[in-house]
Amino acid sequence: MTSLRPDPVEPVSARLAALVAELRDELVAIRRDIHAHPELGRTEVRTTKLVAERLRAAGLEPQLLPGSGLVCDLGPSPLTSGRKRIALRADLDGLPVHDTSGVPWASTVRGVTHACGHDVHTAAVLGAGLVLAQLSDELTTGVRLVFQPAEEVQPGGALDVLAAGGLDGVGQIYSFHCDPKVDVGQVGTRIGPITSASDEVTVTVSGPGGHTSRPHLTGDVVFALGQVITQVPAILGRRLDPRSGVNLTWGAVQAGAAHNAIPSTGVVKGTLRCLDVRAWEKASEVFHSAVEQVVAPLGVTVDVRHHRGVPPVENAEHATSVLEAAARDVLGPNSVLLTEQSLGGEDFAWYLTKVPGAMARLGTRTPGGRTFDIHQGDLRVDERAVEVGALFLARAALLAG
């Protein structure tokens, strides 16, 4: 497999690049193994074992987390260095999606696949850790590798890691997410919100039911649902700062079964997303109030459920500059792009409520090739992204330290 990286100018970067190159084929093989054996959130036992065994083979001492996932420290401890560790995070879980990629290492688990690139994340962070371990005597700041479970399960396995003390002694944290819209060898960055808060909302409307010829004698549940579906998103756009990127989109609606019967109950479900954490904190109150006021004149009762998901990922300015400097150093001066904001949710945000850090977008598209989309069973990545990601994060850890 040919490399995309230029020859780094800095001696330490050149050494990192040489070490990563030595691991390139093994890391790709590990990525393929993980892709062929995906596991859903909080069941990533095999994947955790695979990562732990490779770290132990390198003389490291990974610490298993309750359930699944692990952390692994290398380099000096904060007690000896006087500096908190730099964390590099990967996520382990796949998605309940059927693999239609057609590659030889396609998922062997029916209905489950790595359709979000977490297999690439895991292999790259493992690779970064292995090369940094070879430089551990030269590290002035310790590094912690975080392999977390259940990123795809709201409110996210990051909370499991935090509850287990996974960020104790950590001062900064870094990560990336695969981006199949960006060419391999390039990295997308952005200061501030890069992903959105993502919450699940459910509105249940109830009434006595009745005949469609006599709607005035009952509470029209279907009409009430229609008002909620159309009016509440518009109200949120007027009650919350439009610069906060608030978006309420409905994904499911169920009510009734007959042409001439007004049902007694109906449900609409959707997602509430927001790019600003302050608006996110206010959104629940505004959403509840809007729903109740919209249906108040219609003679029905309403139950509103707002399930908190994850906050926005807000990249710190300094941490973003670290990622950009690392990319330019090991991938070239034109490797950094301004990435767009996404309304997708990412539980890396929970770590950033505790310590500063940043997440980048790692290009996985073959230049000139097809643009895939994540969370789709046919997702393919240019596997050179594994080497690129390992080198990029290893250099970022050194610069952050």
Write structural notes for this entry.
With 401 residues, the chain is α/β, with parallel strands linked by helices. The chain has ten helices and 16 strands. The chain has helices at residues 11-36, 45-57, 78-81, 118-134, 158-163, 221-239, 277-295, 317-331, 348-352, 384-400; strands at 63-64, 70-74, 85-91, 143-148, 170-183, 187-189, 192-193, 197-206, 210-211, 247-255, 261-262, 265-274, 301-310, 314-315, 336-338, 357-365. The strands form four sheets. Strands 1-2-4-3-5-16-6-15 form an eight-stranded mixed sheet. The chain has a four-stranded antiparallel sheet with strand order 10-12-8-13, with helices on one face. Strands 7-14 form a two-stranded antiparallel sheet. Helix 1 (11-36) crosses helix 10 (384-400) and helix 6 runs antiparallel to helix 7. The longest helix is centred in the N-terminal third of the chain and has 26 residues, at 11-36. The radius of gyration is 24 Å and the shape is elongated. The two termini are 31 Å apart. The model has no long low-confidence stretch (mean pLDDT 96).
Topology:
Blueprint: H1 11-36, H2 45-57, E1 63-64, E2 70-74, H3 78-81, E3 85-91, H4 118-134, E4 143-148, H5 158-163, E5 170-183, E6 187-189, E7 192-193, E8 197-206, E9 210-211, H6 221-239, E10 247-255, E11 261-262, E12 265-274, H7 277-295, E13 301-310, E14 314-315, H8 317-331, E15 336-338, H9 348-352, E16 357-365, H10 384-400
Parallel strand pairs: 3-4, 3-5, 5-16, 6-15
Antiparallel strand pairs: 1-2, 2-4, 6-16, 7-14, 8-12, 8-13, 9-11, 10-12
Helix pairs in contact: 1-4, 1-10, 4-10, 6-7, 8-10
